[in-house]
């Protein structure tokens, strides 16, 4: 019976984690970019501000995941 090597398992985890974090970052960046042109009226302004904040936090979380993956692999 063959087992998965440590290097292959590390690569799998890195691609999975870094890939998910990278996609998360791109997703939130695109949504934030689309939201930049939205000029809400007074009743919708808090909702748009909350969306901007949420997408900004999503970008930060995604970047932490990508940077953490790169540091784990010794790239940074």
Which terms summarize this structure?
mainly alpha; elongated; 0% strand; single chain; 76 residues; 2 helices
Report the radius of gyration as a whole number of Å: 18 Å
Mean pLDDT: 90
Low-confidence blocks of residues: none
Question: What is the H/E string?
Answer: HH
The class by helix and strand makeup works out as mainly alpha
The figure for the number of domains is 1
User: Helix tally?
Assistant: 2
Please outline the major beta sheet.
none
Shape: elongated
| DSSP strand count | 0
- Determine the fraction of residues in helical runs and give it as a percent range: over 70%
Sum this structure up briefly.
This protein has 76 residues and is mainly alpha-helical.
Plain-language structure description:
With about 80 residues, the chain is mostly helical. It has one domain (about 10-70). About 75% of the residues lie in helices and about 0% in strands. It has helices spanning about 5-35, 45-70. α1 (about 5-35) runs antiparallel to α2.
What's the structural blueprint in terms of helices and strands?
Layout: H1 6-35, H2 45-72
């Amino acid at each position: 019976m063959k087992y998965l090597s440590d290097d292959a398992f590390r690569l799998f985890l890195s691609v999975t984690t870094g890939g998910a974090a990278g996609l998360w970052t791109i997703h939130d960046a695109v949504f934030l970019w689309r939201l930049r042109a939205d000029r809400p009226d007074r009743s919708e302004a808090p909702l748009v501000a909350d969306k901007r904040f949420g997408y900004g936090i999503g970008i930060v979380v995604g970047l932490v995941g990508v940077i953490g993956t790169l540091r784990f692999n010794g790239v940074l």
